Structures are given as structure tokens and as C-alpha cells.
Amino acid sequence: MTTDWHIDPGLIEQYENGTLVPSRVMAVEAHMLSCAACRALIPAEDAWLDDSWSAVYDELHAPRVGPVARLLTRAGLPGHRLRLLTATPALRWSWVLATSAVLTLAVAAAWFGREGSQAIGQAFLALAPILPVIAVSGAYGPPADPMHEITGTTPAAGPGLVLWRAVSVIGVAVVMAGVAAVLLPGPGWYAAAWLLPALLLSTGTLALATSLTLPVAAVVLGALWLTGVLVVARTAEGLFVSSVFGPTAQLAYLLAAAVFAAVLITRRRRFDLGESR
Ligand SMILES: [Zn+2]
């Protein structure tokens, strides 16, 4: 490289101000590496260097904010809550992807299977309410959350956080199952028929979690629901949908969910979080 050419003062000024385009910054810096005269033109005072370093540091260490987090912030959720919510194990991409895959398969099977599409629609109705329960079981606590040792020591840990996380995972699960339900062939009301059972099972799991750990509560209620559904399917074959998802049943689910919600509210301080106390 020839040393006859040097960076002109205008360029140096832009470089100092940080207004130079990246490609020219690279050219300027490449020249400076081999030219002490041009290097000397830059005021390498401590303050200037410190500023530059802290700008680089901030850029590298700034937490990445995803679209969902940005939306929640705009909706008024405080930052510290957001951090604890987005660390919810059940909201990891792996969980969301696995659930989407299962739902997509169910919808595809119902559309392309034809013959069995009615059976698939009914199976979907029976299984969709369990989705939020599975999500809740992984929302908090040692077995599901490898970060729990750290989360558990934060001042925000405990019943409040369990509820926040439960509501967020139930919300995500319900939206995902809802999209699948709308895409399924079959009577239009199928798309909403599983919502009250889902509400019942979710509040039930949380109410039960005031005596049992979350995963155990989820397994107990999930198993009870499945057993009930299977028994009805066996005994009342043709009337399966109307007896499990008909108006009377829906009203019963709503009432039971209200009872569970009342239990949950009165006992919320007693969440068994599986911690040694
Ligand atoms: Zn030079």
C-alpha cells in the first residue's frame, strides 16, 4: 500500500462524528492500520474512547425484543413482568412448534382423510380442552423449568407469577387450538364447543394446584376428562357430541369452572409449587 495517499480532513471529520457509511468506515480503518500519520489525526482521548466502547458494548448486550414482547409492552405490561413471562418454559418455541405441528396434522387429516373426518373432528373436540392443561403443567416449577432455581428466588416468584404464566400459556394454547378449530371441516359450532371445557379444565388444574403440584394436578384433571369422554363415547355412541358438548353440558362446564375459580381465588396463597419449605 502506498503512503502517498492520506485520508482527507472531510472524511476524518465524518468518521469522528459517526456519519460515515460503513463501507467507507472500513476503508478508513484499513488505511489507519498501516498509517501512523492518519491515526494521529484521530483524537484518541480517554473520554472519546470510552464513549465509543460503551456504544459498542450497549449495542452487543442489548436484550433482543421479539414481536410478541413488543406488543405486550405496548399493551402496558411492565418490563419486569414481561421478562418473567417470556421465560415461561411452556412458551418456548419448541413447545409452540410441536403444538402447531400436531394441530396442523389434525386439520390436514380431517380434510384429506374424508371418510374419518367426522371422527377426527370429534376427537379434536375431546382433546383440544387438554391442550391448555398440558401448557399450564409446564408453566412453573422445578420439573418443567430448568431456570426455576433462579426464577424461584426472585421477589416476583410464587402464586402471582404462577397465575400470570398460567393465563399467558392458556391464552396462547387457546388461540392456537382456536385457529385449528376454525380450519377444521364440520359443523361451525365445533370451532367453539371445546372452549368451555378448556376453561373448566384450566381453572380446575389451577385450583387443584393449591393442593397438588402443577404437573400432578394437570395429569389428574386431564385423565379425568379423557376417561369421562371415553365412557360417554362407549355408552352413547350416536349421541356423543350432543351429550358431551350440548347446551346442558356446556352450562355445567361453565358452572363448574366458576366453582373452581372461586376455590382458586380463596386458596391462591397455598399453591404447592414443589419447593422445599
Ligand atoms: Zn494516511
Question: What's the arrangement of secondary structure elements?
Answer:
Elements: H1 9-17, H2 22-34, H3 36-39, H4 46-61, H5 67-74, H6 79-86, H7 93-113, H8 117-127, H9 130-137, H10 148-151, H11 159-183, H12 190-193, H13 195-208, H14 214-235, H15 240-245, H16 247-267
The protein binds zinc ion.
Organism: Actinoplanes italicus
Keywords: Membrane, Transmembrane, Transmembrane helix
Protein name: Putative transmembrane protein PGPGW
Short account of what is shown:
The chain contains 16 helices and no strands. With 277 residues, the protein is mainly α.
Task: Report the biggest beta sheet as strand number plus sense, adding barrel if it closes.
Answer: none
Order of helical and strand elements: HHHHHHHHHHHHHHHH
Described by its quaternary structure, the protein is single chain
Return the average pLDDT rounded to an integer.
Answer: 78
Are there runs of 5+ residues with pLDDT below 50, and where?
A: none
Account of the protein in words:
- This protein is an all-alpha fold.
- The protein has helices at residues 9-17, 22-34, 36-39, 46-61, 67-74, 79-86, 93-113, 117-127, 130-137, 148-151, 159-183, 190-193, 195-208, 214-235, 240-245, 247-267.
- Helix 13 (195-208) packs across helix 14 (214-235).
- It is elongated and about 95 Å long.
- The model has no long low-confidence stretch (mean pLDDT 78).
- Zinc ion is lined by residues 6-7, 31, 35, 37-38.
- This is Putative transmembrane protein PGPGW.
- The chain crosses the membrane at residues 90-113, 119-141, 162-183, 189-209, 216-236, 248-267.
- Keywords: Membrane, Transmembrane, Transmembrane helix.
